[in-house]
Amino acid sequence: MLLAMHAPDGFLTAPTAIATGVLSAGAMAAAIRASRPELDDDRIPLAGVTAAFVFAAQMVNFPVAAGTTGHLMGGALAAVLLGPSLGLLVVAVVVIVQAIGFADGGLTALGYNVFNMAVVTALGGWAVFRGARRLLPATPTGVTLGAFVAAVASVVLSALAFSLQWLFGASAAVPFDTVLTAMLGVHTLIGLGEGLITAGVVAAVLAVRPDLVRGADGIDRAAGPARLPRARFVLAGVVASLIVAVGVAQFAVDNPDGLERVAEDTGFSEVAEDHALGSSIFADYATAGVGDETVSLAIAGAAGTLVTLALGTGLLLLVRDRRRGSDASTAPTA
Amino acid sequence: MGAGHTHPLYVHEHSPVHHLPAHVKLVATFTFTVVVATAPREHVVTFVVAALTLLAAIRVARVRLRFLLPRLAVVTPFLIGALLLPFVASGPRVDVLGIPLAEEGLWGGFGIAVRAVLGATASLLLVATTEVPDLLRGLERLRAPRLLTQIAAFMVRYLEVIVGEVSRQRRAMTARGYDPRWLWQLRPLTAGLGVLFVRSYERGERVHAAMRARGFDGTMPVLTEERPAGVRAWRLALVLPALAGLGRIAGLLVHG
């Protein structure tokens, strides 16, 4: 999503494109070698259908606030579900096919696009996930919380990677701290959304087929379905919000202009779309969202502050929805 | 899967560009984007020549601009970013209509915008004239790892099926009067996505089993013999990057 996502041709300098291209190719080669045992069993169709799932999942728009939606990136989710190497491969294939088959993202930008969207999110997300699992109980709940943390981290790491590439290979002289500020600020918020979606999906898969969640090895199946204990999840939410608040405030004091402009204008332009449930998967590739910039710009100003609050409340009600069954339609309407 | 196979970005035509082998077109498009992406942004001549060449190629391919232009929407976030650069970039300022803008930012924004638009248009032309399975076979002929192209081929083949499941979930939800629009209504949507993963995975297992039963050994049989691309095909396709390259040289001469 945003600047880190589907960058066009010539967005970063040629040396950066080549360097990230080499890194991405190396990571993919290593991932191919690591997933040989699985794929040698000629299970390529399985990997392909799962890649189609990631592609489709990116097309599902999620509500953020009235009329504003975002969608999943899926790197951390793929890693938690399929393991780091197959997860990396699957997301890399998605990114490559989006560039070559759907003209989404530049051909010469594939190096950094694959690196930021597949390599960093899958490997970084997996590393954080393993670390989190060591601290959390070996239960479905622990795995779900770990997936939440991993997904948040994967988005922030991706933004960080992009900012570093900008430092070395900017195609225009925007100060590094401006880019870093905007990228990290916006992506921490987006990361929280990614985390909620990832956790929700992992919890749902754990409830039906826990054996399909690679990251859930050695869990205590007897512990019952993933419960997201209110206290712990709220605590996680509060901590995350605090980090966001403190982090963003730090940067904001540093450089209010850059943050405000870049964050507002580029930040939310892509996530803002008409209404959540566009049925065509190709909406992103066609004309959707063109006329929405004004709307999204207006929303974006308020969104920064509101989203944090909404996320906190959302975490709470997410837990409540689960307890009450599917009676979530009682939420207030605008 | 049945009907509705056509890709929304593909334009069915019988132009010389459509008839070129996919791998030839891939090489031509990639070389073109490399020329455009590496040209210094001050070399306006290069971009003009590249744009005119690309327009000519679109003409030859009988793809209408009215079809391509709306699909350039993929790069709008970056165009907005480019528009902002004059405000956020550092360095000396110039006054434009009384507003002090960074000179460096104006050039930077121009560079990003022009490269993004030209690159995306070239990619769109490639997709408009080549079907995705052909593109993947083209990649294979260019020695991309078979494992990747095959995962991609299965992905493309089942994309419609999976997306169909998504839209059925949506319809079921809407039919029951559920229309989530706030973040705290995320839960049912994520649960739906979880179900989608399980269904996709199980479908993958079934496809795999069915293919094994029919003798699948890990590689797809090639049904049509691939003819090597003729010199004529290469010559025609490489006109695009060659003219852009000439534009690049002209840029060097004009702008120094």
Description:
Chain A is an all-alpha fold and 334 residues long. Chain A has one domain: Arp2/3 complex 21 kDa subunit ARPC3 (Orthogonal Bundle). In chain A, strands 1-2 form a two-stranded antiparallel ribbon. In chain A, a hairpin with a 2-residue loop joins strand 1 and strand 2. The longest helix of chain A has 33 residues. In chain A, 62% of the residues are buried. Chain B has 256 residues and is mainly α. Chain B has two domains: 151 residues, no CATH class; 70 residues. Chain B is built from eleven helices and two strands. In chain B, helix 2 crosses helix 7, helix 5 runs antiparallel to helix 6 and helix 7 runs antiparallel to helix 8. The longest helix of chain B is centred in the middle third of the chain and has 30 residues. Chain B starts with 15 loop residues before the first helix and ends with a helix. Chains A and B meet through helix 1, helix 3, strand 1, helix 5 and helix 8 of A and helix 2, helix 5, helix 6, helix 7 and helix 8 of B.
